[in-house]
Every structure is written in structure tokens, then in C-alpha cells.
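Model the whole thing, not chain by chain.
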Amino acid sequence: MKSADYASSQYICLERDNMNTPKIVCQNISKIFIQKGTQRVHVLQDISLEVRDNEFLVILGPGQCGKSTLLRIIAGLETPSEGTVLLDGQTVTKPGPDRGLVFQSYMLFAWRTVMGNVEMGPKLNGVPKAERRKIAQHYINLVGLQKFENHYPHQLSGGMKQRVGIARAYANGPQVMLLDEPFGQLDAQTRIFMEQETERIWQTEKRTVLFVTNNIDEAIFLADRIVSLEGKLPGRMASVYDIDLPRPREHTDMKFLHLRQMITDASTLTL
Amino acid sequence: MAYESVKVEKPLSLILLPILSVFTFFSAWELIVDTGIVPSTMLAAPSAVIKLFLIKLTDPNPDGAILAAHAWTSGKEAFIGYLLSLAFGLPLGLLMGWFTVVRGLARPIFELIRPIPPIAWIPLTIFWFGIGIEGKVFIIWLGGVVPCVINAFVGVRMTNPTLIQMARTYGASDWQIFVQLCIPSALPMVFGALQIALVCCWVNLVGAELLAADQGLGYLISMGRRLALPDMVVLGMVCVGFVGAVIGYAIERLECRLLAGIRR
């Protein structure tokens, strides 16, 4: 696994330095959008959370509760109206290669092959061809897309496209992976399979993961910790659950079902 | 993959009906002239046009050049004007789409010049260039630049904004986003521009040659008018249509091959 060294070496050092300090800190984040010039939409209110290094944190909430906005603020694509985001103690102001983003709608370059998409990050940062090919190949293999390097996105299924998205984010060598409802467009069976794959990939190459979803099963299956947001705007923190079930988890395990019941009961959906 | 190629038969009606409609159209045209409903001094019958076509292949009279020479002159002018309009219009449109500075500077001037029909420039070009090739190339260039700029501009503006954000999270610079994301995204619109600009160029070519030329298909048409030879007018029109259609088809084939990877 020599080709993994490029991506993993940087975060190993950081892990030693920051063993006890959190990787990401969100301090009192609020976000107000101005719509149509005059309308104020209060999307997030007073969100404070800490993400530990190499933790798998799931942000859970129904549609329209601001969870994607929170992720985009951490990614640096939006600025918070109040509060700050700290990554390794540094304030986040703009997107950066230390955070890899995976979108719900794949967002692949249609005119580039799987290889071309995955090697995009290193290429943009001027990594020589031979080296970036090696990095990309490593992550293509990691997500199980070997033999599809020369396929174009339109030749792939939804699950495979999202594998490309994950490999592409990994190949840029981020310390934090931000996934915004990555499996929202997949059918139920593919979705469960992709959740298992996500767990396998994360176990093989650990990163700090922030995973946004509206699916309670998915959250329990993947998370070290779940932060649930209230089901209406503005999004506020509802509760935090530590999920200490052994991995890999079973959807039909009694403890799993118990947790599922608890979280379902706690979430209030007002229409 | 589990895809099998299956041959799909074209419906018979789609083969027969076009033949029928074309046949009927030309027969009716021939009949109208032959029976004298429309006198042959006003409209040439297809048979007369074909006859003249065969003569003009080798005979430079009465307008001074054989058909191939006219077509060659027109084609050369149109091609040079077309290439120049692509070379100028596409980069300008693409840059206007992405860089605010270029948009701010170029847009007002472009919007002022755009509504002036290129034909309106003919008197000025005669002052500047006489009736040589330069003037006509200039007119053709003017006609082709407008769709090039608009399509390239719109193509870049239509780049998926989430893709742009995605590229930013990967640390792409403005220039990298422009070259590696906006331009490929704009390609389908750019290829649309190739087609539209060609039509504009070709149309303006005939316009320019009608007024200021000594050779070319447009000149053939205008000579037909001056010499009161309707078959020469129609022959010129048919040649303009035919050559334009051939070039259009060639560009479409090229587009299909180049964009094979983007088709979904």
C-alpha cells in the first residue's frame, strides 16, 4: 500500500499532535439567508459541536432543516452569519483541499473518465502525472472500481458514480470528508450496500467524516455519534447520540432496533 | 455490459413520404412553368436550371466564370470570414461568460453593434476595401461573430454552479475553472454556434456579393437578374443552398464525433 502514503502521511502527524483537541469545532453557528433581496430566512440557529479526529459523525435531520447548510459552512462554501468554524484551531473562511466534499448529485465531470475525475484534485494542485495516476488508481481500487478507469460517468450506475465521487474526494488527500446525503439518489438496496462499502472504506483509510443524512437507519449503521437537528427552520441541535454498537452493524440487531425506536420517537416532525 | 445492439427499422412512411413530397414539389414546379401558368421569364423550370447547370460547368459565358469558379470564390470568402469569426467570437464569448472584467468592458459595445445588420456595413466596406475579397470577408465576419459570442457566453454562464463550487473545494484557481470546467461545459453550445454562425456567414455572403462582387454565387444571382435570366438566378440559389447544406452536414458529423463522450 505504498501509494497510500501520500494521502495518509500528513494526517498521521496531525493525529499525534492533536490527540486530545477536536478536529473541527463549530461555535454558535447561525445562518440567515436573504432571499429575493428582502426576505430573511433563518436556517441555522446556535449550532455548537465538536468533531473528534477520525470520528464518524452523522448529522441527522429531515429535509429543510439546514443540515446541508451546516455542512456547506464547514466546507467553506457559505459563511456563517454568526459564529465560527475552527479546523485544527484555524478559522474556516473558504474551501480548501483539507476538506473533501461528496455531493448528493454526484457532480462528476461528464467529459472525463473515472480516472480523469479521480485524479482531478492532485492534477489541479500540480502533482506530476505518474504520481497522481498512482494515487488515483489506489483510491479507484479502494472503492472497488478497478476495470472501470476508462469509463465515462454516463456509462456508470448511480452507486458507481458515487464511488467515483468518494474516490475523488479521497484522492485529494483531505483530513476531513464531508458527505452531503451521498446516497439520497440511490435505490434502497444499493443504498444499504453503499453504506456497507462506506464503512469498509472508512475502516481501511480512516478520516474524520461528517455525513449528512435524513435516514435514521443509515445514521445508526454508520455513526460513532449522531447529532440530530430539529425538523423545522431554523435548524437547532435536538440531541446527540453516542452509538457504541460493534462494527460492522446489523440492521436487525436488537440494540440497533432499540436505538432506531428511540431516535424515531425523539424526532418531532411538524408539517 | 449487458447491452446488445439491436437494429431498429426506420418506419417505411418516413422513407417514402419524403420521396413523395420532393417528387411532387418538383413536378408541380415544372408543370407550372411548362404549361405557362407562370411565364418562363419570371420563373425557371427545374429542367431549364439543370440544363444551365450542365452548360455552366464548362462555359464561362455570359457572366464571366464557370460555376466551379463562382462556388470556389464564395466558398473561400465564406470560409475565411467564418474562421475569423470563430477565432474572434468564441474566445470573446467564453471570456465574457467567466470574467467580470471582460463582460463589463465588451458587453455594451457588443450590444450596440449587434442590432446593425451586417449588410448595412456594405457601403462603408466599399469605401474601405473596394469590391475585393477583404470587404466581403469583413461582412461575413460581422455576421458570424454575433452568434459565436452569444452562444459561447451563454454556454459558460450555464455551467453548473455546484460543479464550480466542487472545483473550488479542490483548490482550483479561477483560470483552471475556466479552462477545465467552463469551456468543456460550454462545448455543446459552442458547437451550436458553429452551425448558426455558418448559416449567418453564408447568408451574409450572398448579401455582400449581390452588392459588391465580380465573382461568386451571389454575383451569379445578381447577374441573372441583370441579364433577365431566371434560370441563372435559380441556379445560383440552388448552389448556395446545396453548398450550405453540405458544410452544415460536415459540421454536424464533426460535432457527433467530438462530443461522443458527453452524450448521455
